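ok trying again, last paste got cut off:
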Amino acid sequence: MATQTVKKMKNVVAWFEVPAIDIKRAKKFYQNIFDIEMDDIELDNFKMSMFPAEDGGVGGALCQHEEYKPSHEGTLVYFNSNPDLQTVVDKIEEEGGKVLQPKTKITDEYGYMAIFEDTEGNRIGLHSDN
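nice, full thing came through this time. structure:
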């Protein structure tokens, strides 16, 4: 029997885009729940607000364009919320979002997760080790 080598990727996700109907509202929501600053880019009728990422880290943006539709269906992106996602969960409803699944332990090895709805109607996950 032949041995198969499994290739591992540094990060499975290389880039993500979260649809926004009102990018200013969405930017305010995400900046406040994560305590971050986001930079804006506008190209013709396409608006983006960039999530900060370290060099070599996974990047992403909020995107407002007629072809981007917020949804509860489809891909579910999980944001890194270390050291403890509960600090993010505690801000979601006061910033206009909705907690869909509170902090839940996955396993000792895989940590914790939660799911929320943002101000635009997207379903987003959170993950942390604690």
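cool. The longest helix spans residues 23-34. The chain has a mean pLDDT of 94.
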